[in-house]
Design a protein that fits this description.
globular, 10-stranded antiparallel beta sheet, alpha+beta, 24 strands, 637 residues, single chain, 7-stranded antiparallel beta sheet, binds zinc ion, 33% helix
Length: 637
């Protein structure tokens, strides 16, 4: 890796820029969402959500922690959990992508102010963390298992990468480089043999290496990945798997333990494997992730089914009513899937990103952008309650969207993902453009041979299944437009002029010497459909769900004639019927006899039964119309 001076990314900024791989990512200046629901969400995110995050971080004292360090005030003033610094960094990262997306000058100034605060708080040797190392605090790196110091530095580095790529190098990059250098000096080959209890520094250091050309950052990330799995962290009450420190990365078979930790580590391992050309490591990680998708992932794309340790359950342990499915785990899964899509070109990773976007990310944030879900249950048995907008939630195990949590990791993750969302729409290779996600958008780039190509996507997807792609720029000569056909989209059709041809799930391509104005249309069948679970998922055996295109549907009590959703059964003999962006299905509400003991020698006698048409709505719309109960999986009649 040759050293280059870091500069703004000429494409407008990309979160991940591998130096090798199958597909090349496009930047904020090359892929732009121009309309539709995601455009609206991006605007809300760039305004209300980032303002909300900033004001709460000020109110909670998390930004003030840095000022206290700068002013030499006592450590007893330090507020929040040990990882509070990371929330400030993640907010700065989200702001940086937002400035790249919208050129918001007020936000740009805000980043400058926050950067000045970080510059002033950084120690002369580069160390920067408000929770350790000052008089009255624990010494630096004295609690690698729980201290989150390297985790925080990772988020600082990611913020600086985002800032540099979108706006050019400034003081934030200087802060991040000094902090990363301090990490390399402390934990390098001659230094302390340690790893952080919470992975995150790994993908951050690889990206800093990609940005700056500094080999030492890649080497350090590589060391951190190699060192994990040998049980060198102290035993955690939940086991070494909690830290993914139970089995070396290249020997593991599946993701396990704390879901966010495991997924951040996986993202870093993909980055290291790609940058070092380590095919064995890449194959190991692909196999672990694929097995995790096959056995440990909810229908929504959510991951993590155990509240107690925020962890993956064993294979097929995917209870609906105890789904943890943290927002951050889904953002981390998008990070992994995106890296694997770039590395392999496999459309199944685009399928997962789509599933998460529509069913976790879209669900996580309120319409006004100022409250959010930490966990994502798939079955709410007791009505949610409205929360006052100024109250912090102490627990983070479910409940309604809350304005703030004691641990508010998810908001920054939502913020940075939405602000950079357009970079996940499309990629390029030497042959042309690949469209992975569908939205009203403009996508254009220069191919490796210098030719300029661009298309405009127009669609009402997923409400409607037609995606129109019109060529807006071409320099002549043949090139290829490739479109992802989701796994659920059997019967999809590609319309190219007078020609119609079937488009099987996977990828469909059109290659020719395009002219400006040429249009191709992908028609995806988004009608509602039944979805049956693997019978090994005991928690939902004998149940069925309804999906419409990429959108998981649910029944919510506010739409039903009988509010108690525990009493529902559905009749699978007729197909679900279209109803706006949802569906209706035939079913029953039972009223079982109460016997005082919920088990019997014989199947319980059917009580009173009421036949009903059940209305289903997109899961992402639930809990937006007042207190309700909800379920995704419906028992078969
Ligand atoms: Zn979170």
């Amino acid at each position: 890796m040759s050293v280059t001076s870091a500069a703004a990314d000429p494409t407008g900024g990309r979160p991940v820029i591998p130096t090798r791989g199958t597909l090349r990512p496009l930047g904020l200046g090359e892929a732009r969402i121009t309309g539709g629901a995601w455009s609206h969400r991006q605007r809300v995110n760039g305004g209300a959500t980032l303002d909300h995050g900033r004001s709460w971080m000020d109110k909670m004292g998390w930004t003030g922690n840095f000022t206290a360090v700068e002013q030499g005030r006592g450590s007893e003033e330090r507020r929040g959990r040990e990882f509070a610094d990371s929330e400030v960094y993640k907010l700065v990262e989200a702001m940086s992508w937002e400035v790249g997306r919208s050129a918001d000058r007020i936000r740009d100034r805000e980043i400058g102010e926050l950067t000045a605060m970080l510059v002033a708080a950084q120690a002369p040797d580069g160390y920067l963390n408000t929770a350790f190392g000052r008089p009255g605090q624990r010494p630096r790196y004295s609690d690698l298992a729980s201290g989150h110091e390297l985790y925080c530095t990772g988020h600082l580095v990611q913020a600086a990468v985002a800032r540099t790529r979108t706006s050019g190098p400034d003081d934030l990059l200087g802060v991040a480089r000094r902090a990363a250098d301090q990490v390399c000096e402390t934990f390098g080959p001659e230094g302390m043999w340690g790893i952080c209890g919470h992975p995150e520094i790994e993908p951050a250091l690889v990206e800093l290496a990609r940005l700056t050309g500094e080999q030492r950052y890649l080497d350090q990330a590589s060391l951190f990945v190699q060192r994990r799995g040998y049980r060198t962290l102290p035993l955690h009450p939940f086991g070494w798997s909690y830290f993914s420190d139970d089995i070396p990365v290249r020997e593991a078979e599946v993701l396990r333990g704390h879901a966010v930790r495991s997924l951040y580590l996986t993202a870093g391992a993909v980055d290291v494997a790609v940058e070092t050309g380590d095919r064995e490591l890449l194959d190991a990680v692909i196999s672990q992730f694929d097995r995790t998708l096959a056995r440990r992932t909810y229908l929504t794309g959510g991951m993590g089914s155990r509240h107690m340790d925020e962890a993956f359950g064993d294979d097929f342990v995917l209870p609906s009513d105890r789904a943890y499915s943290e927002t951050c785990a889904s953002v981390a899964a998008v990070m992994v899937a995106w890296r694997l899509l770039l590395a392999t070109g496999e459309p199944r990773y685009g399928d997962l990103i789509e599933r998460i976007l529509y069913n976790v990310l879209a669900t996580a944030i309120s319409d006004d952008g100022t409250s959010f879900f930490y966990a994502h249950t798939l079955h709410q048995r007791t009505p949610t309650e409205d929360l006052p907008p100024d109250r912090e939630q102490l627990g983070f195990g479910g409940g309604p969207r809350a304005p703030w949590f004691e641990v508010s990791c998810c908001l920054g993750n939502i913020g940075r993902t939405l602000a950079s969302l357009s970079t996940y729409l499309a990629t390029a290779n030497e042959r042309g453009l690949q469209l992975h996600q569908y939205a009203d958008a403009e996508v254009g780039t220069r191919l490796a041979d210098g030719r300029r190509v661009a298309v405009r996507m127009a669609t009402r997807y997923p409400d409607d299944g037609t995606v129109s792609v019109r060529v807006t720029e071409t320099d002549g000569g043949p090139w290829t437009i490739a479109l992802r056909v989701p796994r659920w989209a059997g019967g999809a059709v590609l319309v190219d002029g007078d020609q119609r041809r079937p488009a099987a799930p996977g990828t469909v391509e059109v290659t020719r010497d395009f002219s400006v104005g040429d249009e191709i249309r992908l028609q995806l069948p988004v009608r509602p459909r039944w979805t049956f679970p693997d019978p090994r998922i005991d928690a939902v055996r004998g149940c069925v769900a309804v999906e419409r295109g990429p959108v998981v549907l649910c029944v919510e009590s506010v739409d039903q004639p009988v509010p108690d959703l525990d009493l529902v059964r559905v009749d699978p003999s007729a197909e679900p019927r279209e109803a706006g962006d949802g569906a209706t299905v035939a079913g029953w509400f039972d009223q079982p006899a109460e016997s005082g003991w919920p088990y019997d020698e014989s199947a319980p006698q059917a009580g009173e039964t009421t036949r009903a048409a059940l209305r289903l709505v997109p899961y992402h719309r639930w809990a937006r119309r007042g207190p309700s109960t909800m379920r995704v999986w419906l028992p078969l009649g």
